[in-house]
Amino acid sequence: MPKNVKTDPDFFGFEELLTEGERSELAEIREIVQREIKPLANEAWDRAEFPFEAIETFAKTGIAGFQYPEYGDGRTRRPLFNGFLSIELNKADPSLAVASGVHTGLAMGSIYGGGDQRQRDRWMPDMVAWNKIGAFGLTEPEGGSDVAGGMRTTARRENDEWVLNGAKRWIGNGTFADLVVIWARDESDGNVKGFVVEKDTPGFHTSKIEGKIALRSVQNADISLNEVRVPEENRLQNIETFRDTAKVLAKTRGNVAWQALGVAIRAYELAREYAVDREQFGRPIGGFQMIQDLLVKMLGNITAMFGMVTRLAQKMADGTAGADHAALAKSFTTTKMRECVAWARELFGGNGIVLDYEVAKFFADAEAVYSFEGSREMNTLIVGKSITGHSAFT
């Protein structure tokens, strides 16, 4: 390889904004993830199975406590550091990164933000240690983008219990989770409330969604709730309306923007390495103009994505990030990610559609990342309302 070739996809050096201590910790986790998580990824993805060995590795890194220092190691990590951590997890495998994010962000975030102190103390320590795995039950078979107003899962109070009825769909970790946060509409006041439903509760049934082409290792579930009885002590005490649910989603939506960046980066890395090594017409294809054009367009997208998510992390740290900031970041980065993985797959030619070269997995997984945590269109409407003052939601 010629000298002075810049192989780092972080072309403008955004990682330099981390402290020396943060870079050191990130390097340690990167090494663990590459050594213990990445080797599990392709085979598990091909089988559409979850590699439970990964849970032990996640527990060893302590990542479940990074956003909740009082239940972790007591050290506060900046949103910027957590963003770079997300990049590393997604470069290793988007499926396992999603499974981790559902547990640490959606499930734990709901309990931490929506529960009272007693509930946090009850569930958070076991979840930080990965002794209990969490899931987040919001989306329904007939309600995705309109679930706020169209939620059909109901809850009615009977003395000191709540009775839940309905169905949920696309619930990550749902087939094996110990604790599932179920969102249901209170029959008495019409407001959405949150309930922690424990595995093996009578009337609570899960089944794996088969035939996925993306995030195949994530065990998404269909959940049915038939007269499921949950004690009042399992109702998240600080959740009163769907607006409280939206606060959890606003935080995790920002993480999806970092996830999209991680997927794009790995696709670029694979494409750049292939372009340097693959020879056609007697020379590496990286020496052809059209190949360089694809790589530079990918790098430009990645650099723009870095700028947006870095500023979002800074605004999260100082408390000025709004739901509209997270929505714009999610919409923009997932769109640019989708372009990057398509260009990467194109660069590989026929080799880009087989798992052996890995880029096919990232190409497929990007479709799920593009769609969940609010579609591009729905996030566009959140930002559109913010900048015009008019709601275009119907």
What is the topology?
Elements lengths: L19 H28 L5 H9 L17 H14 L1 H21 L2 H12 L5 E4 L9 H4 L3 E5 L2 E11 L7 E8 L5 E7 L5 E5 L12 E11 L10 H36 L1 E2 L2 E2 L4 H29 L5 H26 L10 H13 L4 H13 L6
Parallel strand pairs: 1-4, 2-4
Antiparallel strand pairs: 2-3, 3-7, 4-5, 6-7, 8-9
Helix pairs in contact: 1-3, 3-4, 3-7, 4-5, 4-7, 7-8, 7-9, 7-10, 8-9, 9-10, 9-11
Walk me through what this model shows:
The chain is of the alpha+beta class and about 400 residues long. The chain folds into 3 domains: about 15-130, Butyryl-Coa Dehydrogenase, subunit A, domain 1 (Orthogonal Bundle), CATH 1.10.540.10; about 135-240, Butyryl-CoA Dehydrogenase, subunit A, domain 2, CATH 2.40.110.10; about 245-390, Butyryl-CoA Dehydrogenase, subunit A, domain 3 (Up-down Bundle). The chain has 11 helices and 9 strands. It has helices spanning about 20-45, 55-60, 80-90, 95-115, 115-130, 145-150, 240-275, 290-315, 325-350, 360-370, 375-390, and strands at about 135, 155-160, 160-170, 180-185, 190-200, 205-210, 220-230, 280, 285. The strands form 2 sheets. Strands 1, 2, 3, 4, 5, 6 and 7 form a 7-stranded mixed beta sheet that branches. Helix 4 packs antiparallel against helix 5 (about 115-130) and helix 7 packs antiparallel against helix 10 (about 360-370). The protein is globular. The model has no long low-confidence stretch (mean pLDDT about 95). GO terms for molecular function: flavin adenine dinucleotide binding; glutaryl-CoA dehydrogenase activity.
